[in-house]
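Exam revision sheet. Question 4 asks you to relate a sequence to its structure. Input first:
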Amino acid sequence: MREFAYLDTLVLSALADESHLWPAVSTLLESRGLSLALSRCHIAELHEVARRHASICEFLATVPTCLVADAEAMLQAEIASYPDRAPAEAIVLCALTPEFCKTELLRGLRSPELRDVRVAMRQNAELMQTVLDERRDNFPPGPTGRYTSDQADLFADHVVIEKLLKRSREALALLPKTGEIPGDAFLSLRLAPLVSFFKYYVGRRAPKTPSDLGDLCHLEYMPYCRLVVTERDLQETLRQLRPLTRVLDASTIKNISFLRELGRQVAE
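Answer key, C-alpha cells:
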C-alpha cells in the first residue's frame, strides 16, 4: 500500500527551477513508498506561474504522482470511518502516468478556465478574514484575556461542528451529545482551524495578505500524508501544535531545506 507526500505550491514551484534536486526527490519518494499528492489547490495556484508549467509537469512525470480527491469525497470517507481515522488512500482520486503529466496536465495548467477558479479562491480568502473575526467574537479568550494553546482542540471542535452543519447533517448525527469530537475523526476539517487558532489567536498575528488565508485549502490533505514539505512559517506553526493534537501523528513536517540537503548529499 502506497503512502503519500504533500509538497505545497511554493515548494513545487521552486523545484521547477531546481531540476538538480529531482533525482534526490525521486529517490526519497521511491525509498519510502510515497506518491506525490497533487490537489486542485495546486493546479489552480500553479496556473499563475506560466513560465514554470512545462518544468513542473516534467518534474511530476519523474516521480509517482496521484491526483487527490475533492473535499466532499474526503468527508464521505471520514464519515464511513468514524470515529477512526480514514485510511490514507481515501484521499486519492487516481494515479497520474508520466505521459499524462507531460500532456494532459500541462494543458490543464494552461486552461483559461482556471482564471475564474483563482478569482473565486481569492474572493473566498478575503471572506475568511471576516470569518476569523466572527469566530473570535464567538470564542472568547481564557481568564487572562489571552488565547492559550490548551484551547486549540476545543476551538477546532467548534469549527468542525460549524462546517458539518453546513455540509453534512449525516456526519453531525454521529457526534456524541457532548460535542467533543474524537481526535482521529474529520481530520480534513480539523487542521485548518488549529493552524488559524495558533497563528491568529494565540500568536496574535494578522494575515499579511488574503493569500495567507487562501493557503489554508492545502491543510485538509496533510493529515493523510506521511511526508509534508511546506514553507518555514507553516512548518513552525505545525511544530507548535503537534504535541497538542493527534491530527499530525502520521506526518513528518519539513521545509524545502530538507530537499536541498538531500540534493547536496546525492551530489556528493
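Marking note for examiners. The chain is about 55% helix and 10% strand.
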